[in-house]
Amino acid sequence: MTEAWAPPIAADGGFLLDSAPLLSRSTVDRTELLREGPVTELWSSGRVLLVDGKGRAQIGPDGRLVYEDAAVFGEQPTPHAVLLGSQQGTVYWALRTERDGSQEGWQDLRIAGAQLDDTDAGLLTTAVGLLNWHDHSRYCAVCGAATNRVKVGWARRCSGCDREEYPRTDPAVICLVHDGADQVLLARQPVWPPERFSVLAGFVEVGESLEACVQREVEEEVGVHATDIRYLGSQPWPFPRSLMLGFAAVADPATPLRPADGEIEEARWVSRADVRAAMSTDDGIIPGLRLPPSVSIAHRMLKGWAFWS
Fold this sequence. Notes:
Elements: H1 32-35, H2 39-44, E1 47-51, E2 57-58, E3 67-69, E4 82-87, E5 90-96, E6 106-107, H3 109-112, H4 118-135, E7 147-150, E8 155-158, E9 164-165, E10 170-178, E11 183-188, E12 200-203, H5 210-222, E13 227-237, E14 242-250, E15 266-271, H6 272-279, E16 285-286, E17 289-290, H7 297-306
Parallel strand pairs: 1-5, 10-14
Antiparallel strand pairs: 1-3, 2-6, 4-5, 7-8, 8-9, 10-11, 10-12, 11-15, 13-14, 16-17
Helix pairs in contact: 6-7
GO molecular function, one term: metal ion binding
Keywords: Hydrolase, Magnesium, Metal-binding, NAD
Family: Belongs to the Nudix hydrolase family. NudC subfamily.
């Protein structure tokens, strides 16, 4: 009989993520030295991933991403191509496509991210985030002149003041608050599907440490004070360009919950037994509780906590 899986335990006795967040997986070489290589040579034998305006890419019958031969698009990289990385002699690029991604076989990371293998997951995550940044960085923040892609898509240079700008990532904390025993604090936003609950999250402000952000966001969103804040792991979340930094914290369940108006529709303490029950279903749903999808770091955090003992 196969033994039941159990999550690793941190050195301080606390829980860890049950596994690496699915959008943190990557296998390609993406060092800066690769980006400084001979562009024509990198392009000529390259493979191109097409991504539509909603972050969708084509998935083949085998469950893998569909790549085009770079030569189809010309002998030189197109002005809008971005280099993603290299693996076993194959160089991967990405391009925004005008194709209608709503057709069958095109899916985004929220839908397909959990099914993709490590290579495809890393490439699509990078492509979506990088292309989103280019879409929103067409003008210089200093002088307002148009900017152009340089360094195979890993920078933009201003045509006016010659300033270079690099891809931006917005840090956000996501925190699993528990009572130190068998309850976890979950909340739902008004725009989510009925009964969908998750852990708390928010963006880091200027001049703020990650730990201070955890305390502020938890108190702002549900009115409780978080202590024993501990880092768990991170995951890129290119919607449009965030980096989710996962933490665990402890709070007193006797403190009255005060959901933030307009931001949190409902907050409640949920038992470990209920989270385990939802985790045991194919879709993470039991009556009254719908957990976040497995592609999210929130799911990995909840699973790590639920089966920690």
